[in-house]
Amino acid sequence: MFKASDVAKKMVITVRPDTPIYDAIRLMANRNLTALPVVDAELDLVGVLSEKDVLRLLYETVDRAEQTVADYMSANVASLDVNATLIDLCDQLIDSSARVMPLTENGRLCAIASRSDLIQGILRVKGQAI
Q: Which of 102, 110, 113, 129 reaches 20 to 30 Å from 12, CA-CA?
């Protein structure tokens, strides 16, 4: 059976909570990322900064240069164990508004899977690979 890790990206671009918010936004824009996992020094997942989180900046009337990722990230994010099945991943991505799902091993971020990664996985599972 295919696992979530079979479709996930192992090279994950991350930020820390103390990363300046505009640095994180530039990274998202330059890399065409829909979300950035937020990790601590031990690579424990502490949150996710999504496009939706970033959109809140438009409503702010005061622009403070000292704002960080921690000011905008979603701290209570779902994640899956790296050994979860593709069905588990699909269930999570269907049931949430998240476009990506962090995969962890012993609480540490090790991969990330997006809806588009899962779609490509479905083609492989169904014998219809690109």
A: 129
Q: Dihedral (C-alpha) 91, 114, 12, 55: value to the nearest 10 degrees?
A: -110
| Contact in structure between 72 and 21 (CB atoms under 8 Å) | yes
Q: Other CB atoms closer than 10 Å to residue 55's CB: what's the count?
A: 10
Structure tokens, 26: 């530039």
- All domains of the chain in start order, with CATH: 4-125 (3.10.580.10)
**Cα–Cα distances in Å, from 68 out to 21, 35, 38, 59, 73?**
4, 15, 11, 16, 9
Residues 6+ away with beta carbon under 8 Å from 6? 86, 121
Indicate yes or no: pTM above 0.70: yes
Reported as a single tens digit per residue, the pLDDT across 60-99 is: 878 777 899 999 999 988 999 999 999 999 999 999 888 9
Residue 120 CB: number of other CB atoms within 10 A? 13
Question: CA 2, CA 69: separation in Å to the nearest integer?
Answer: 34
